[in-house]
Design brief:
8-stranded mixed beta sheet, 310 residues, 7-stranded mixed beta sheet, alpha+beta, 35% helix, single chain, Aminopeptidase, 10 helices, 2 domains
Length: 310
């Protein structure tokens, strides 16, 4: 049931970034949480955690995490509780409110799109938009090829292309040093992988991505394509090729990581959410982001500053 952001590879990355973190476990729950230091105060944050085997495990999990908040001198706890089971990871808002949690704006996406890879890959392709299938089957005829790199230095191609996308769209890309730290920490052990789309005759890759792998699932992390070659749809080819590679490695799912529901038409994510849904799969809903004040006065100052800032 574990999410990559609750796993050991993400914990190792936080250590490489010199971010204090804790890992806790109890009867029916477990949690990995990172201390995030702000200008006014600090918080302990469990991305997609705590992970619960049953709803009743929420209270003891929060109690243990709150004790860590106090030990670390932080002002509040931020969580995104997830539940194991066939009905999906989201807990009812009423249960979270009853535990004293307060709903806040999301930190991690509240919805994602997951594609089932535990079947013949032809069936995976059949669930995609027809144009995506055709691109996957014919991209070599356009002089394109896809290469997986185990060299962390190749993250520079992704950083360059993300800069292009940011300049064109105003998208806020992650800092280059943060992506370099991810590549240097996660790629050598196979916890992250870099994929590059190359065009015959071009000096540099025309698309690049970094994905995260655990024992069950591949997560679509960061990706970008060159503005000058958008007509070739290298982004589509990148995704279908990474899905095929994950299928060949025996992974059960491909997580396209972050969408808004299809009925939401005016969100900043609406366009790339439609792009992600074009690869098939099902929408998975999470609980959202919630906070629990531990130092009420400090937390009130923090919330007031957030409201004032926008």
């Amino acid at each position: 049931m574990s999410h990559f952001l609750q796993g050991p590879a993400w914990e190792r990355l936080q250590g490489a970034l010199n971010r204090p973190a804790v890992r806790l476990e109890g009867d029916g729950w477990r949690a990995f949480a990172v201390l995030q230091k702000g200008r006014l105060n600090s918080r302990l944050y469990a991305p997609y955690g705590p992970e619960l085997e049953r709803p009743e495990a929420l209270e003891p999990a929060l109690a243990a995490l709150t004790a860590e908040v106090r030990r670390l001198g932080a002002a509040f706890l931020r969580v995104e509780p997830t539940l194991a089971g066939p009905d999906g990871p989201a807990l009812p808002a009423t249960a979270l409110e009853a535990a004293g949690l307060r709903r806040v704006g999301r930190e991690q996406p509240e919805h994602t799109q997951r594609v089932d890879l535990a079947r013949p890959f032809d069936e995976v392709l059949a669930d995609m938009r027809k144009s995506n299938r055709n691109l996957h089957r014919n991209f070599a005829k356009k002089g394109l090829s896809v290469r997986e790199s185990d060299d962390p230095a190749d993250i520079e191609h992704l950083i360059r292309l993300l800069g292009e996308v940011s300049d064109r769209t105003g998208m806020h890309a992650h800092a280059g040093d943060y992506l370099r730290a991810q590549a240097q920490t996660l790629v050598p052990g196979g916890d992250a992988r870099i994929f590059l789309v190359e065009l015959e005759g071009a000096d540099l890759p025309v698309a690049a991505a970094m994905v995260y792998d655990d024992a069950e699932r591949r997560y679509y992390g960061h990706a970008a394509a060159a503005t000058s070659h958008r007509a070739l749809s290298p982004g589509v080819i990148l995704v279908t090729s990474m899905m095929r590679d994950a299928h060949e490695r025996g992974l059960a799912e491909f997580d396209l990581y972050g969408v808004v529901p299809p009925e939401v038409k005016d969100h900043a994510w609406s366009g790339f959410s439609d792009f992600k849904r074009s690869f098939g799969g099902r929408q998975v809903d999470f609980s959202g982001t919630w906070e629990l004040p531990v130092k009420p006065l400090s937390y009130a100052v923090y919330r007031a500053a957030r409201r004032f800032a926008g």
